[in-house]
Structures are given as structure tokens and as C-alpha cells.
């Protein structure tokens, strides 16, 4: 039996292995590149979102008298998030809530929230008035702030309710709280609360700071993930070229030498 009878199947198997390795490398590179472009897409989406927030914040201020009017609706308010608004009405000071464990300029303290009754329509919106430091010697002592009485004007931005922090057990209905759920607060107070809030802006006043943190887009994280996926795709391609093309040729040259 000649040697060629064995060498033909061996060459066929070798060729099949080369094709399979090529297809495997191609699939892996395709998947990792797709994941990299997906991360870039998420980063661009967040940049567009941040640009939209900035654009809305520069639009003319809305007249708060439209809240609760015939032209107002919950669906319309959703499209008005981050828009400036001027409110005229009165503070419902006895219902002020202090949200604990909130930071401003890396200092722990309270976010102070007070319901505000709009003069024109009588609806009530919770206003995030600002931040105040806490008393570390007595956690139950409320910091001194001032709440004007009578008719006042407030400038702010339409926003969602404050983000919730992790809390153990059921939230206590007290002046100092970890979080504030507007639906529960509506039932608790009996007020015609809207499902939105207003972040008061402007210089510090009434014992409150208003240097609100900017919403983080996190695009750096997505760029980092994209770099990792593209790097992995490049590594797979280089390994394929080395083990399936360069190394076999080097071996062939070495074996061909006398």
C-alpha cells in the first residue's frame, strides 16, 4: 500500500480544520466587534439624552399656572421634564420632609422637600428646595431653615421625584425619612399632589444650598467597555493569524531546510 493512500485523508482533515478555525475566529471577532459597537451606541444615546436635558434647561420658563389647568395632563408633563418653570403660590410648611443621607459637594445632610400650592389652580407640587447639613451630635435634630409665609414665587426645573436610596423595612412617615414616595405621600397628606416635582434653583437662601449635582451620563464606562471588546477582537484576529498562518509557514521553512 502506497503512502499516498494515507496522506490524502490527512490533507483533507487538515484543510477542514483550517476552515473550522477560520469560521470560529470570524464568529468570535464578529461578536466582540458587535458588542463594542453596542457600547458605543449606548454612549451616544446617553450623550444625546444629556444634550436634550441641556437644551430643555435653556428654554423659556413655563408659567406654573398651567399646572392643573384644562390644558394640563399627566402625559404633557412627562414631555416637560427638565424645563424651567416659575411657580406662584404658598408653601405648606408643616408638611416639610427632610430626606436623610443626601450629599451636596461631598457633604452629608438632608434634601429639604416642601409641598407648594399653586395659586392659580390649587394643585400641589413637591418642591425640592435645597440641601442643608445635619447635626452629627443629634441625628433627630432638625437644622434651622426659613420658610416664607404668604404668596411667594419660586423658580425651578420640572423633575422626577428624588431618587430612592436603599431602606431597611417599611419607610416611617416622619419628618426625617430616607425616601419619599409621592403616591404614598398623596394618601398620607390628602393633598392633590402632582406626580412630578420641581427642583428649586438659584443662589443659596433660607438656609439651603442649591448646588445640585449634574446627572452623570457614564459615557466613560461605555467607552471603556467598547475599548475592551475591540481589543479582544484584535487579539483573536492576531492569534488566528499567528497560529494558523505565520507559525505553520515558519515550521514549513524550518522543516524544508537540509
State the low-pLDDT regions, or none: 1-7
> How much helix is in the residues?
40-55%
Topology order in helix (H) and strand (E) letters: HEHEEEEEEHEH
Please report the total strand number as a whole number: 8
Which strands sit side by side, in order, in the main sheet?
A: 2-4-5-8-6
For the termini, the CA-CA separation is: 28 Å
- Which band does the percent of strand residues land in? 15-25%
- Based on secondary structure, the structural category is alpha/beta
Mean pLDDT: 88
Rg on CA atoms, Å: 31 Å
Question: What does the largest sheet look like?
Answer: 5 strands, mixed, barrel
How does the overall form come out from the CA principal axes? elongated
Counting DSSP H or I runs of 4 or more residues, the number of helices is: 4
Please describe the topology of this protein.
Blueprint: H1 4-57, E1 62-63, H2 74-78, E2 84-91, E3 97-104, E4 107-118, E5 124-133, E6 152-159, E7 176-177, H3 182-189, E8 193-200, H4 219-256
Parallel strand pairs: 1-2, 3-7, 5-8
Antiparallel strand pairs: 2-4, 2-6, 3-4, 4-5, 6-8
Helix pairs in contact: 1-4
Describe the structure.
With 258 residues, this protein is α/β, with parallel strands linked by helices. It has helices at residues 4-57, 74-78, 182-189, 219-256, and strands spanning 62-63, 84-91, 97-104, 107-118, 124-133, 152-159, 176-177, 193-200. Strands 2-4-5-8-6 form a 5-stranded mixed β-barrel. Helix 1 (4-57) packs antiparallel against helix 4 (219-256).
Amino acid at each position: 500500500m502506497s503512502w499516498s493512500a494515507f496522506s490524502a485523508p490527512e490533507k483533507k482533515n487538515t484543510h477542514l480544520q483550517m476552515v473550522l478555525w477560520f469560521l470560529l475566529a470570524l464568529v468570535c471577532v464578529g461578536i466582540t466587534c458587535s458588542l463594542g459597537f453596542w457600547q458605543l451606541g449606548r454612549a451616544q444615546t446617553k450623550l444625546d439624552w444629556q444634550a436634550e436635558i441641556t437644551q430643555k434647561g435653556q428654554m423659556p420658563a413655563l408659567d406654573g399656572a398651567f399646572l392643573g389647568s384644562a390644558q394640563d395632563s399627566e402625559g404633557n408633563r412627562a414631555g416637560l421634564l427638565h424645563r424651567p418653570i416659575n411657580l406662584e403660590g404658598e408653601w405648606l410648611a408643616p408638611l416639610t420632609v427632610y430626606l436623610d443621607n443626601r450629599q451636596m459637594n461631598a457633604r452629608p445632610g438632608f434634601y429639604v422637600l416642601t409641598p407648594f400650592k399653586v395659586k392659580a389652580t390649587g394643585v400641589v407640587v413637591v418642591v425640592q428646595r435645597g440641601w442643608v447639613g445635619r447635626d452629627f451630635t443629634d441625628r433627630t435634630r432638625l437644622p434651622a431653615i426659613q420658610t416664607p409665609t404668604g404668596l411667594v414665587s419660586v423658580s425651578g426645573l420640572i423633575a422626577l421625584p428624588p431618587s430612592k436610596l436603599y431602606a431597611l423595612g417599611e419607610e416611617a412617615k416622619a419628618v426625617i425619612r430616607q425616601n419619599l414616595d409621592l403616591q404614598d405621600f398623596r394618601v398620607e397628606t390628602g393633598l392633590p399632589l402632582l406626580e412630578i416635582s420641581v427642583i428649586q434653583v438659584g443662589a443659596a437662601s433660607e438656609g439651603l444650598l442649591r448646588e445640585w449635582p449634574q446627572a452623570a451620563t457614564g459615557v466613560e464606562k461605555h467607552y471603556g467597555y467598547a475599548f475592551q471588546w475591540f481589543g479582544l477582537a484584535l487579539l483573536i484576529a492576531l492569534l488566528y493569524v499567528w497560529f494558523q498562518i505565520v507559525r505553520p509557514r515558519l515550521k514549513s521553512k524550518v522543516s524544508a531546510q537540509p
